[in-house]
Amino acid sequence: MNSRAKLALLLTMFMLWGQPSLADEPSSSPVTGMSTGTPISLTELKELARRDPTATIQQGNLLLDTPLSAVDAANVKVAVAWAYMLQGQYPRSALLTEQALMVAEQHNLPRLRVEAINLEGALAFRQGRFEQAEVYFHKTLAIADQHKYLDRQVSAHSNLGSVYRSLGEPVLALDNLYKALNYSYQLNDPWRTGVTEVNLGLIYKDNAQFNNALNRFNNALASFAKANNELAAVYPLGYISEVYQTQGKYHEALDTALKTHAIWQRHQEKDAVARSHLNLAKLQRLLKRKDLAQSHLDSAKSGYQQLNNSNGIANVLMESGELALDHEQYQKAQQHFRQALSLYQAEDQRNAQLESLLAIAESWLLRNQPKQAESFLKRANNDTLKNAPPTLQLKTDLLKARSRLLLGRLTSAQTFAQSAAALAEQLELLEEASQSYQLLTDIYQQQNRFKDAFFAHKTADNYTNQLAQQNQNTNLQLLRAEHQLSVQSEQLAQLKSGKLQAELALAQQDWQKKSLQATIAVLCILLCLISALVYQSRRLAKAYEDQSEHDPLTKLGNRRFLQHWLSIQIPIMRRRWFQRRSSIYSSADIYFFMIDLDFFKEVNDKHGHSAGDEVLVQFSRLCTKLLRDSDQLVRMGGEEFLLVAQQIDEYGAAQLAEKIRRVVARHSFIVADNQPISITCSLGFAPFPLAEQEPDEAMIEPAIMLSDRLLYEAKAKYRNAWLGLGTSKSWQSRELMDADIDELYAALHRNEVQLHSSHPLPTEAEIEADTDAGTGKESPRTTRNAPPAAKTNTVAPIKKSDSTS
């Protein structure tokens, strides 16, 4: 386990313990037993366990040697068991926990029982037995829910969130953590709130949702500040620095890391100070500051040597090797990497061994010797990469692609380059994405696939330009700061010159001084007024723009927002369309979903328009939780909404429509009079573009209108239903745009289009009966030699329990 993981685990362990609390029936009088004879209560003993586990074990054992009731002795054992767990003495901790649990069950003490079971879960979690930990924490949650132990409900949900994160279940983790956050607000406990916010931020960070992660970590900082706990703030600060570093914002990462370093120094945490020096060295290296980086490396190495920490020394050697590589000192770099690899192998640190292997391979590639690099890259196999973080997997793919390209193994090089490109885009790493596509460009050129090479080169240039723009913004900020310093220096020189002249003519100096002061005062006042006016005008303009593009009730986008957003997306969709034709990417489509609330007028008539507004707001929030970050939900007017889903095929669209329909049908909408209201919705969806052709902005409105017609058909026949159009390989967009529902039904049975519905679609005989009963006109497409009728295409029919009339 690396140092960062140990810090995260320690913070989680604090949360697993929670606030000090007594069992159901402890002794009301203080318990004596300290060596000094000073009385100490059970609550004080638990608080001591959080601060000093060693002292807790000493004082707890002294207490156990004195006459105590069974309940008091069990409480002491829980506190001492907690301290043993923090010191890694798991067998002793488990024995005391089991003894305390037996007392709780014999005396029917639910509070003591939940404390003991919670500690069993903490032991299982700390030892990596996550499935067992899940069972224990569910037991604690059941007891806490039964007896309304609010603090234990917070702990249980937060613990389950940590377990599900470790098991790779982010959805379940988020669900439990948000419940823990809600309970912590009710409890008004800033410490628990802060820890839960950190765990939420880690989930978002794991899934590359960096803005959400930063918001959660900043919330945690505010909570820890409210709890007056400076030491706890190092955890969100450290994660904020990691997020900035992942985004390539090294200046922001350095500023945050310096704050963390100052806190560790104030609290004299030697291991943390050494680790902080190592992190600062890495950031200084990334900012091309060699001397500062070397200074931090020397401090980190000295700290780890004093602590006899071989793993920390190996980390310092790895960073020293990276620094040597940056300055083309290849032999020195390989020497550092080999020393680090030896230390990691002795400590059985697999991820660290992988980093060392990759560093050595990269040094051989920089010397244009791919065969030697391959001998190290082969050791980075699937078993090695199984539990490696995504950044190490990305680096491995890039190095293997470079090595295979130099060796002329183009097919293998293409495979690894494409894998690296996909992973870099997922992690939003601009520099690595540009490197991946540049490698693909070189590979395609050698394969004489010039069209693919053109698109890969264009994509690489795009990422390079984005990275250059980001660097340019940083440089501009530095230039502005330097300019301000130069202006201040010039003003200082002028003041000194004025002082010399004043020695020659005191009267003239007095006048100039007063004139300069008055001028500066007027300029400052004018500058402040201008700044205030500019700020106010920009704020108002932004507010007006937001109001014009967003619905004031639901805060969703409106038609104007949709038009603006689609104008940005159309070029991206065209590029995806061309890339799909060149077989670089898999198919990626966009679907329009028209959503309408059934019998919404009855809500307004029966409960009033304020209740209808509340239903619309709750509906928008409910749907937003079901969507991805890339999807857009807008309010078209009244009870009608439009959902735009990206990168989804027709079967995914059908599943999403059924998911929205089912969740809305099962949801109880609460209005002002606290009366639950059940309401359903109907949906119609259609793809864009409607057929296999280049996306055209002029075809957006017809696609939306077609989804609206499909919605009308679902509402007219069923309600609480959905109907959608899938792929169409034989129809053109304009034919689909002009087709009515009966024509689409007929085309479905000729296998010309795909329709998906929550209810059984009409059979061919029913369509012919409707045509005979109608105008008698035959669809112009029915004259084709159609194949035999296909079976009705349905997806997940609605259960009767979900339907409402």
Describe the overall structure:
Residues 755-805 are annotated as: Disordered. One of its GO terms (molecular function) is diguanylate cyclase activity. The chain is built from 33 helices and eight strands. It has a six-stranded mixed beta sheet with strand order 2-3-1-6-7-8, with helices on both faces. The protein has a two-stranded antiparallel sheet with strand order 4-5. 40% of the residues are buried. Helix 7 (130-147) runs antiparallel to helix 8 (150-166), helix 12 runs antiparallel to helix 13 and helix 15 packs antiparallel against helix 16 (310-326). Mean pLDDT is 78; it is low at 1-39, 583-588 and 775-805. It has 805 residues and is mainly α. Strand 4 (668-670) and strand 5 form a beta hairpin. It has five domains: 1-136, Serine Threonine Protein Phosphatase 5, Tetratricopeptide repeat (Alpha Horseshoe), CATH 1.25.40; 190-308, Alpha Horseshoe (Serine Threonine Protein Phosphatase 5, Tetratricopeptide repeat), CATH 1.25.40.10; 330-468, Alpha Horseshoe (Serine Threonine Protein Phosphatase 5, Tetratricopeptide repeat), CATH 1.25.40.10; 505-549; 561-802, Alpha-Beta Plaits (2-Layer Sandwich).
